[in-house]
Write a structure and sequence with these properties.
Blueprint lengths: L8 H9 L14 H8 L3 H10 L2 H9 L4 E5 L21 E5 L2 E5 L5 E8 L9 H14 L5 E5 L14 E5 H5 L1 H9 L10 E8 L10 E8 L5 E7 L8 H14 L4
Parallel strand pairs: 1-2
Antiparallel strand pairs: 2-3, 3-4, 4-7, 5-6, 7-8, 8-9
Helix pairs in contact: 7-8
């Protein structure tokens, strides 16, 4: 990681907050994560900042937003590897870095963002008991629907198996259009390391519900700058445009060499 020379973190933040002439779509939602993405020029700009600065510099920059930053070692030994319905206050409004995967827990204690570089693509173990519980929590909150514990970053892509990466997701959507995108991503393993940056947003209608009403996905080719963005409602098929967006995403991945 590089360190800042003549420019202090405060000065860098001033440039970022000033916009730097960069405009970018973000992953949605009304919370602080969305604001950070806008200020840093999109999720890619924020991820670049995480990758290129020291932990101390990142923590100082995040203070502007009232947000923490925590680097985890062996995640199985960390408190956040538990499976709480809502994370405790100590884990809220914090970016959690698990070996280069970034997960943001919002102020209400729910998973809100997930970032990851791909490839390498190595399947990660599932935590079946946690995944089952999260689906059941969704069923209890909205008995008229059927929910899975759905990964933000799929386990076949190396996404962590714990609660920070799992939300109640409509079962038809999770096993259908969302899974088809994840399975297509799993074919990107022959690309150069870290060629793709993968961003997920889980957005909620209010501060109390457990179930996201909207899930967004953005994939960017670091080499060419080409990207694809998709937005899904957390209902069957991902909503009325879910199949269209899935097809667009799958076709984009094919064009990048994920075959």
């Amino acid at each position: 990681m590089r360190t800042l020379n003549k420019l202090s973190v405060a000065a860098v933040m001033g440039l970022l907050l000033g916009g730097c002439g960069v405009t970018s779509t973000d992953l949605g939602g009304e919370g602080v994560a969305s604001q950070m993405e806008q200020d840093f020029g999109g999720p890619g700009g924020l991820m670049d900042f995480f990758q290129s600065h020291s932990e101390e510099e990142i923590r100082e920059a995040m203070k502007v937003y009232g947000v923490g930053y925590r680097v985890h070692g062996n995640v199985t030994a960390e408190l956040i590897s538990d499976c709480p319905k809502f994370f405790p206050s100590s884990d809220r409004s914090v970016w959690h870095n698990f070996d280069g995967e970034y997960y943001y827990i919002d102020s209400a204690g729910r998973p809100n963002r997930a970032y990851k570089y791909l490839p390498p693509i190595v399947a990660a173990p599932r935590i079946d008991s946690c995944q089952t519980s999260i689906g059941q929590w969704g069923d209890a909150e909205n008995p008229s629907n059927d929910y899975d514990g759905g990964h933000l970053i799929g386990s076949q892509l190396g996404g962590w198996g714990g609660r920070a990466n799992i939300v109640p997701q409509d079962a038809n959507f999770n096993r259908g259009n969302w899974a088809q995108l994840e399975n297509k991503m799993a074919l990107c393993g022959s690309l150069p390391s870290s060629r793709l940056r993968y961003y997920i947003g889980a957005n909620y209608p209010n501060s109390t519900t457990l179930i996201p009403n909207n899930m967004t996905m953005e994939i960017t080719n670091q080499s060419t700058g080409s990207s694809v963005s998709m937005s899904f409602s957390n209902v069957d098929y991902g909503g009325t445009n879910g199949t269209t967006d899935r097809t667009r995403g799958v076709n984009w991945l094919s064009s990048q060499g994920c075959n």
